[in-house]
Amino acid sequence: MAAIIRTASGAIAVEEIAGQAKIRTASGRLDLGTVGDEADVQSASGDVRIGVAASGGKVSTASGDIELGRVGKPTRVHTASGDVRLGEVLAGASVESVSGDQRIERASTGDYLLRAVSGDIVVAVAPGSLVRFDAGSMSGNVASDIEVEPSRDAVGGPSDLPELLIQAKTVSGDISVVRAVN
């Protein structure tokens, strides 16, 4: 069962939506606890917070911060002006921002396509994950705390460890890949 919510102005707070959530708002904060299926959220102005999006989804806002606590499937996030914070991401994400920082607290597996015009990008990788990393910044630093190892194929064949591909680009901002804490 899907929940469809539309509002011109005002805060929206819902503790749990068992199925899909389709939400459109022009102005106001959106606070969702758990979405059992895919979350489809568009906001012109206002912060968006979703505790759990079990089936991932897409979230966009023209102006406002976006926070997703736990995401179970690939997710797309877009903001023109605002910070993006993703907690635990289990299957990859695509994040685009014009002005604002991006932070992924725990990337477990999947592909991560991260783009920013002005803002820092930080990805914390779950321990035990293999990482492929392609990053660039025109006027910022690129750094990784992950130790560089020879390709698994070169040292004994494929591995059954979770694997991540991180592609991160920013025009003006720093990019960091770090290990997530246990």
Describe this entry's structure for a reader:
The structure is a single chain. This protein has strands at residues 3-9, 12-17, 21-27, 30-35, 39-45, 48-53, 57-63, 66-71, 75-81, 84-89, 93-99, 102-107, 110-118, 121-125, 130-137, 142-144, 163-172, 175-179. The chain has no helices and 18 strands. The strands form 2 sheets. The chain has a 9-stranded parallel sheet, with no helix packed on it. It has a 9-stranded parallel sheet with strand order 2-4-6-8-10-12-14-18-16, with no helix packed on it. The protein is globular and about 50 Å long. The mean pLDDT is 92. The protein has one domain. 0% of the residues lie in helices and 65% in strands. With 182 residues, the chain is mainly β.
Topology:
Blueprint: E1 3-9, E2 12-17, E3 21-27, E4 30-35, E5 39-45, E6 48-53, E7 57-63, E8 66-71, E9 75-81, E10 84-89, E11 93-99, E12 102-107, E13 110-118, E14 121-125, E15 130-137, E16 142-144, E17 163-172, E18 175-179
Parallel strand pairs: 1-3, 2-4, 3-5, 4-6, 5-7, 6-8, 7-9, 8-10, 9-11, 10-12, 11-13, 12-14, 13-17, 14-18, 15-17, 16-18
